[in-house]
Amino acid sequence: EIFVPAIRFKKITLNTRNGKIYVEDSLSDYLNVNTKNGPIDLAGVTCNELSASTKNGKVQIGYVIAKNIDINTSNSIIDIKNVKAAILKALTTNGKIFIENAQNYQDTPQLDMNLKTTNGGIKVNMNDMDNKGYKVKAQTGLGSVSLLIPEMTYNTVTKRGTDGTFIEAESKNYEQYAERVYVNAETMNGDIEVVK
User: Fold this and answer.
1) How many helices (H) and strands (E) does the chain have?
2) What is the mean pLDDT of each run of 10 residues along the chain (196 residues)?
3) 52 vs 140: CA distance, rounded Å
4) In 15, 130, 141, 151, which residue has its Cα 20 to 30 A from 56's Cα atom?
5) At 3, is the secondary structure helix, strand, or coil?
6) Is 125 exposed, middle or buried (0-12, 13-18, 19+ CB in 10 A)?
């Protein structure tokens, strides 16, 4: 257990094996956490760049503000709630990806989410009451794609039965919105759901 002063750090790096990493209320330019065979739990983190990587462990982040967020795990789920970001990358294998209440980072007009998994579903629930534009590119090998976003224009819809489903859609006049969200979601074996 490490206690640090309540100041902004340039860089915080935490590495371990076969153990959990838990970070609460940190302030830094760069936060990098790595473990194997253990979960990662980040709460109340504020930074410019956030990188979290584990194997065989769940990654859970909540109430995080970071311009760039990069999450990587395998054989487990990624659970992201109440974040503000400009770029959000989440990659796992044999696990699901859950995102709830993701917001645009400070004055950044666009939030880019790149979500990829195999043998698991992807669910994005924006809890969005604001007037934002959405662009979604979703592809699944064995599963369905559900977009519960009003006033979407479907540019490409390909349903090939057991070969998979591919959908590209965007809000009408997408580029004219002051705040935009781009979701690029891909899985090999699971459903994809994006809810405004």
Assistant:
1) 0, 17
2) 86 94 95 95 96 96 97 96 98 96 94 96 91 94 90 82 82 94 95 94
3) 25
4) 141
5) coil
6) middle
- What does the DSSP assignment read for 91-119? E-SSS-EEEEEEEE-TT-SEEEEEEEESS
**Residues 165, 79: Cα–Cα separation, whole Å:** 24
Q: Given the structure tokens 């970071």, which residue do they identify?
A: 66
Contact 182, 115 (CB under 8 A): no
Query: Which structure tokens are listed for 4?
Result: 């640090």
- Counting every residue written for the chain, the total comes to 196
Which candidate, 38, 78, 73, places its Cα nearest to that of 62?
Answer: 78
Q: How far apart are CA 146 and CA 136, in angstroms?
A: 11
